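In this section we walk through a basic example: taking a raw amino acid sequence and producing a predicted 3D structure, encoded as discrete structure tokens. The instruction is simple. Fold the sequence below.
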Amino acid sequence: MKIISIVGARPNFMKIAPFVRAIEQYNQTHNDATSPNIQHILVHTGQHYDDRMSQAFFDALGIPAADINLGIGSGSHAEQVGNTMIGFEKVCLQEQPDWVVVVGDVNATLACSVTAKKLNIKVCHIEAGLRSGDITMPEEVNRLVTDRLSDLLLTPDKLSNENLQKEGVPDEKIKFVGNIMIDTLEANRDKASTLQINHIIKANLLDSDRAQAFIPLLKEADSAPSRDRGSYALLTLHRPSNVDQKEVLETILHFLTDEVASEMPVIWPIHPRTQKMLQNFGLWEKAITCTNLFLMHPIGYHEMLRLNMSASIMLTDSGGLQEECCVLGTPCLTLRWNTERPVTLKEHGGASVLVGNNIERIRKEYQKAIKAGRVPQRPELWDGQAAMRCVKAIVEYQA
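The resulting token sequence is shown next.
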């Protein structure tokens, strides 16, 4: 059996790492005539090509170098999808795989699933069935198209099963395997907990001259890496709905600098897109000079996990961090009006609250969250063993 799996952007890397390891383990334990040996080819489309955004994650997570790198790079959605389809078609024609495995909801996921199906190659989608209900999100389009085309849909939670069933997907195509992202969290939790927060800050601050001012505030968090909360907020922000309009981004920035940063340090690993928009809108000076706001380069997986372990609160528009906060128990304000991961919300037992970009709602939920305790939650099958269930589901698949 020959499987090609696809990574394109940073969210994919945390999902593919345990899948690669599970294939290796499967081959070690299934090497007789009754069980097919899996030949695996890893294709990196190159959607994230910056070293801090890509290669550093491969190294940290122990992902082997991609067998094939399409080198797509940046561009509009149409350019990325089109160029990926052109490049990936050549790979499929040359390799003739039995399966193409795609993960998540990035442009590479859509492009490679469409290309594979046009060549009559079976497609498996890991993290299938997630729905935000917001068709204006490019990721929602990617999810809908990929799930419609996939032969095997591997879901992270039972709410995702229900979404697919409502859309008419036959039950035999759906397999509930759990959340593969949590495999990565569990495999890396111990390593992350050994990192010193002050070292993370010092190594990644955009303005290294400010490191000394911040480090003394983190001693308490460093002394209790996974049990207690440190006195800082953690922020990520990158979605167009939050950063592409000046009035929205400016309002969020003012809340951070004038209210959150007045109470505690705010650690902000800043996405290149967000930095660019702050500069374009004339807001960069306010951000970089705020006394208690610490802007950092994009950081590695272990560094982000370590910061999340001890944060008083997470403010984010990242779906993956919602999931991590759920398992770690970090109070999470999700800066979106909807989420494709409702299992992480408080009403479903998680740690996250949807606040959108309405400052009154953000302020209200922020005050609640900083008073709340850390309450880890673990949805069904978020047990660190999802990747092997994915491999077995592919091997055992019968059309």
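Looking at the output, two observations stand out. The chain has 18 helices and 13 strands. The chain has a mean pLDDT of 91. In the next section we compare this with other chains.
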